[in-house]
Amino acid sequence: MEDTRTLRPRKRPTQARALARVESILDATATLLERRGYDALTTNAIALEAHVNVASLYQYFPNKQAVMAALAARMAEAWLSVFNQFPVAFAEADDWRSCFHSHLDQLFAVDATLVGSGPMRHAMNSDPVLRAIDMQNDADVADIIAAGFATRGDLPLAKAHLMAGTITGSLRFLYDLAGPAISQENTLRVAELTKMHDLYLATYFDLRENSL
Fold this sequence. Notes:
By secondary structure, the protein is mainly α. It is 79% helix and 0% strand.
């Protein structure tokens, strides 16, 4: 397996012009992923789409995997932003279902705006090095969800993490199977997954709250 150190940027931009150049490289990568897929992606194609010479790209990224890792990190920030306030919101919500549904709806909505998110997930599933990054992204989301579960349910953190991992695992399956909820078929899949989540979580939150 390739060393994950090969995914590290060669240098990090600090000036506005350099930051804009890196963002244009990531935007171009997302566009090409959507248009052609990961297998057809090359650093030359990225540079051409970003309107930079390939030498400028190599100043920041040693290979296309490194560009993908940076794009994945940018997408992960968008996904994580949905759950930043989840622990407090879930713990204090009058209706835990509405709170949970709202956050999932926001997640699907944000994902639908991310160009190349579907091909990105496919690439991360097929590439062992990128998959390790993807799994860490899932773990970060699960940590946040677990904090809300533990507080509301007065649960041991280990149990809350197991529950959160079950939720994120089912979401991963949905995305791997169908991608974002855009088509009618995918919307139906989301609805069925939501029912499954509700029944699962109710065994912890409804039973406990009804007994108080």
